[in-house]
Amino acid sequence: MIDSDIPFRGLLSIILRSHRVFVARELSSLKLTDAQVACLFRIHRQPGVTQDELSWFFQVDKGTIARITRRLEERGLIMRKQDPQNRRRYMLSLTAQGEELIPLIRKVEDRWTDLLFENLTDEERDTLMEMCRRLAEDAMKIRGVEDDRGR
């Protein structure tokens, strides 16, 4: 049983750490890190995103993103294309092999969600998801982001 005095941030941390462990276990055959999975999804959602934009979105340093994207590129999951308007910048997109992983990863994410919400009614689940979307939007506003594409 979880202590009733754990603050909101602590509860979120428990859920997110448990999610990370679950996804790592379920996708162990792919040998992808949590950060690599997150980058694959972001690139899938926003083809042409740059490393700088990923760094800003995930709030991690540029070197970290460079290492993650280099490994994804070495594995043939993403490709970098030089930005014609700025030759020092590269736009990222998924390769066909990278796109093939998205449904598999999404299936694992859906399974996690189903397991996490199995003790909630459909109405409770819908209410919680709507409240979390609103909290996420408010958190992005506090951070100075208009939408989940970093704009």
TrEMBL record:
Residues 5-137 form the HTH marR-type domain. The keyword Coiled coil does not apply. SUPFAM superfamilies: Winged helix' DNA-binding domain. One of its GO terms (molecular function) is DNA-binding transcription factor activity. It comes from Methanothermobacter marburgensis (strain ATCC BAA-927 / DSM 2133 / JCM 14651 / NBRC 100331 / OCM 82 / Marburg) (Methanobacterium thermoautotrophicum). Pfam families: MarR. Gene3D superfamilies: Winged helix-like DNA-binding domain superfamily/Winged helix DNA-binding domain (1.10.10.10). This is Predicted transcriptional regulator. It comes from the Archaea. Keywords: DNA-binding, Transcription, Transcription regulation. The keyword Phosphoprotein does not apply.
